[in-house]
Amino acid sequence: METTSLLLRAPSANRVYTAAAGPLARAEARWVLGAHLGTAPEARERRIGGMDALEIHASELASDEGARLLGSLSATLGVLDLVEDDPETPVLRPRNPPDLFRHPADLETILKYPGKTNEQFTALLVNLAAALSTRRSGLFDGSLSLLDPLCGRGTTLNRALRLGLSPLGADLDRTDHEAYRAFLSTWLRDHRYKHTVSATALTVHGERLGPRLDVELAADKQTLRAGRGQSLTMLCCDTTRLGELLPARSVDALVADLPYGVQHGARADGAWQRSAREVLRSAADGWRRLLRDGGGLALAVNRRTLDHEAADEVLAAAGFRILSRDGAFRHRVDRSIDRDVLLAVPTDHPQLEQLSALDADQETDRP
Ligand SMILES: C[S@@+](CC[C@H](N)C(=O)[O-])C[C@H]1O[C@@H](n2cnc3c(N)ncnc32)[C@H](O)[C@@H]1O
Asked: Which domains does the chain have, with CATH numbers?
């Protein structure tokens, strides 16, 4: 049965780039649903009852699994099915997507600081990176291994924790590292989770790199003791060292908001740089080694300091193919940030063709 679902968009979505919120939500829906269903469904923007919505057609979305997928999209406020037995009087039937989250929303929202990646945009990046992985359903059962190799104060890690994952993150900035440790410890205490926090030194071959944070958490003692809780690791080091610190082929989805050269510089070759190009060049090989077969990456970039062509050249040299077209997720954040998202997979990804076709679908179906 053909199903038309209306995905109501959160009204507060992307206050900074409101005009781009519709096309962004649509592009995310097509990539994420397309990867899960095998082919991108038709999706168009629509206003209904004075609210912004995406109208999505796909028979596969009638199931509970479909409701969960729709509910997981970063801009979803609510999901309704459109029943048009009588075109004169269409009926909207509410769906009840299962709750995706293991922890309260304040885990993502409490921390505020200059340079924080918008939480909703972070959710979009996480969804897109997970969709590229052949283990994409692990986003819903806690088994997807997710790394943010430029994690700042942990916006991606908090999203991943809320989803029930056990994420890994790394950042060079010691102040960010300490601020995140303090925040998470307090949050876990305040919310009465059973947890352990271990702050140790990160060393490799006897070289001391910086602090390391390992957290274990669970709702009750038994789960924690049995090692069935969630874990989080945050390393304070240069992202180019991650290949030496983490096991090869251990990551399904890599999410990063690359430095824009505005609030954050990019550290590469011993100097701070405006463009993320050099940090990407020196880190991409290591990131590639960390990815499991069938893994993928979603990178947010400022096109003013790193354009698609330059990113493509750097990523291709490390064995990646960018699947998203130039500007697929383009939106203006402010005068100095013209942002896009690059979706890339290793060239030996087993679903390369199927995923590449999603980009072609988007091309022909542009708003
Ligand atoms: C756009 S910010 C990420 C913000 C993060 N998503 C958040 O919400 O907190 C980019 C981050 O890259 C980090 N960075 C830049 N060069 C680095 C390098 N070579 N190794 C590790 N981190 C680096 C900066 O310290 C900064 O935190």
From this structure: 4-94 (3.30.70), 106-364 (3.40.50.150)
189-195, long-range: CB < 8 A, 24+ apart? 191/103, 191/104, 193/217, 193/218, 193/219, 194/218, 194/219, 194/220, 194/221, 194/223, 194/224, 194/229, 195/224, 195/229
pLDDT for 121 equals 95
Average pLDDT, the chain: 92
Atom of ligand 1 nearest to the CA of 116: 8
Helix, strand, or coil (residue 167): coil
d(CA 159, CA 108): 6
Residue nearest to atom 10 of ligand 1 (CA): 259
CA of 57 to the centre of ligand 1 (A): 38
Q: Give nearest CA residue, ligand 1 atom 5.
A: 152
Work out the pLDDT band at 367, boundaries 50, 70, 90.
very low
Q: Are 180 and 153 in contact (CB under 8 A)?
A: yes
In order of 8, 82, 84, 90, the CA distances from 87 in angstroms are 21, 11, 5, 6
**pLDDT of 187 higher than 90:** yes
pLDDT at residue 158 is higher than 80: yes
The whole-number pLDDT of residue 14 equals: 61
Ligand 1 site, residue 150, Cβ cutoff 6 A: yes
pLDDT at 85: 82
Tell which residue, 208, 264, 209, has the closest CA to residue 240: 209
Ligand 1 proximity of 257 Cβ (cutoff 6 Å): yes
Three-state secondary structure call for residue 336: coil
What digits encode the pLDDT tens for the residues 83-111?
A: 888 878 889 999 998 999 999 999 999 99
Q: Is 176 a pocket residue for ligand 1 (Cβ < 6 Å)?
A: yes
